[in-house]
């Protein structure tokens, strides 16, 4: 488990510096991978769909730093779940020194002796929101500035 956490943290650091290839080398994805990413929208299914989009998204990240806080971990047979807070900051989408802290649940499956990501759910809802802001967000609107 320690090595899996180390590789996940290093992969996040690569991503925050726009290195999609380094991320993928450290964080192998299963063919049936699904992602519910921090941008919202429908889940993406399959590694090929994610792999086609990842390099363009990764280029939006520069000069980043990343720290992985493991909140909980679960292991059973060939499955591991990491519940984490990815505390990240960097140049994102051309804006310098932007916070990109995410709540993440990532599921890994052992395949041929290696751990591969089978599911990732990430959202930027680290900071507590009230009911009105949450309802506005859930209905597709953006909450008013506070």
Write the layout of secondary structure elements.
Elements: H1 2-15, H2 20-26, E1 29-36, E2 44-45, H3 47-58, E3 61-76, E4 79-92, E5 95-99, E6 102-111, E7 114-123, H4 131-138
Parallel strand pairs: 1-7
Antiparallel strand pairs: 1-2, 3-4, 4-5, 4-6, 6-7
Name some characteristics of this structure.
single chain; 146 residues; alpha+beta; 4 helices; 7 strands; globular
Could you explain how this protein is built, in words?
The chain contains 4 helices and 7 strands; from the N terminus they run H-H-E-E-H-E-E-E-E-E-H. It is α+β, with helices and mostly antiparallel strands. Strands 1, 2, 3, 4, 5, 6 and 7 form a 7-stranded mixed beta sheet that branches. Strand 1 and strand 2 form a beta hairpin.
Give a count of the beta strands, DSSP E runs of length 2 or more. Answer: 7
**Structural class category:** alpha+beta
Distance between the termini: 40 Å
The value of Rg in angstroms is 16 Å
Determine the mean pLDDT: 90
* Percent helix: 25-40%
Biggest sheet, open or closed, and with what strands and sense? 7 strands, mixed
Task: Write the element-wise H/E pattern from the N-terminal end onward.
Answer: HHEEHEEEEEH
Beta-strand fraction estimate: 35-45%
Could you write a compact summary of the structure shown?
The chain is of the alpha+beta class. Helix content is 28%, strand content 45%.
């Amino acid at each position: 488990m320690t090595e899996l956490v180390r590789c996940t943290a290093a992969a996040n650091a690569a991503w925050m510096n726009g290195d999609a290839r380094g991320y993928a080398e450290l964080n192998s994805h299963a063919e049936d991978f699904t992602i519910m990413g921090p941008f919202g929208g429908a889940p993406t299914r399959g590694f090929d769909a994610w792999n086609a989009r990842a390099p363009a998204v990764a280029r939006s990240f520069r000069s980043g730093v990343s720290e992985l806080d493991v909140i909980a971990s679960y292991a059973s047979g060939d499955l591991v779940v990491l519940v984490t807070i990815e505390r990240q900051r960097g140049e994102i989408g051309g804006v310098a020194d932007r916070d990109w802290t995410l709540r993440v649940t990532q599921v890994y499956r052992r395949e041929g002796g290696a751990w591969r990501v089978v599911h990732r759910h990430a959202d930027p809802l680290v900071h507590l929101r009230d009911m009105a802001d949450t309802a506005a967000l859930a209905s597709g609107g953006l909450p008013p500035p506070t």
